[in-house]
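Our collaborator T.R. sent over the components below with a one-line note: 'Predict the complex.' Nothing else. No constraints on interfaces, no templates requested, no preferences about which chain binds where. So this is a plain run: every listed entity goes in together, and whatever single assembly comes back becomes the starting point for the next discussion.
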Amino acid sequence: GNSVTQMEGPVTLSEEAFLTINCTYTATGYPSLFWYVQYPGEGLQLLLKATKADDKGSNKGFEATYRKETTSFHLEKGSVQVSDSAVYFCALTPSNDYKLSFGAGTTVTVRA
Amino acid sequence: DAGITQSPRHKVTETGTPVTLRCHQTENHRYMYWYRQDPGHGLRLIHYSYGVKDTDKGEVSDGYSVSRSKTEDFLLTLESATSSQTSVYFCAISDRAGTSTDTQYFGPGTRLTVL
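Returned assembly:
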C-alpha cells in the first residue's frame, strides 16, 4: 500500500538555524508529494508540492525536491524564524487516486 | 483562505450519545473529506464525498457515517460515540476533478472529547 514515513520529532532549533525534515514514501508509479503545515490552533495549509520526479516545490523559504530514486521528499529551510514553529506533515496522493496519505507529523519549535 | 467552516469547534459528550459535526464550504468545490488527527498517526481519512449524495469510506470509517445533501455541506455522524473517537476532526475540500495533483484545503478543526 501507500505510506509516508517522516522523521520523528519534536525538533527544537534556534532562530536562523538550518532545518531539515526527512520524508520517505512507498507508492507505486509516480505519486504527487505534498508538505502541509499546521500552526498552533489552526487547520492544515499547503506549504508546497511536487507532482513529478525532480520537481522542486518551494514556498516561504522552504524547499523540497521530489527524488524518485530515493523515494524521498525532504523539507529544508536555510534560516528558520520563531514564526516557523508548527507541525509539518508530509503527504502523498497515488498517481491513480486523489486521496491523501499523511505521515505522522513532525513538531518543530524555534527558539529566539 | 478557502471558505471552510466547521461546527461546533469544541464538543464534550458522553459515551453512547450521537454526535454530528458539520462542514460548510462556500467555494462550490466538488470533493469533500473528513479526517481525524491523533498523535503519532498524522491525519487519517474517515469518509469522503465526490458529489452530492456520493460518498465512500476511507481507512478508518467504522463507527462513522456521512451525508451530503447539498454541495456546500458535509456532515459526519458518530451514531454512538466511544472514547476511542476522542480526536480532532478536520474537514477538507478540493476541486480539480479528483486528480492526484489536487490540493486539499482544510477547515479549522473540531475538537471532540468523549467521556
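Summary for T.R.: The mean pLDDT of chain B is 92.
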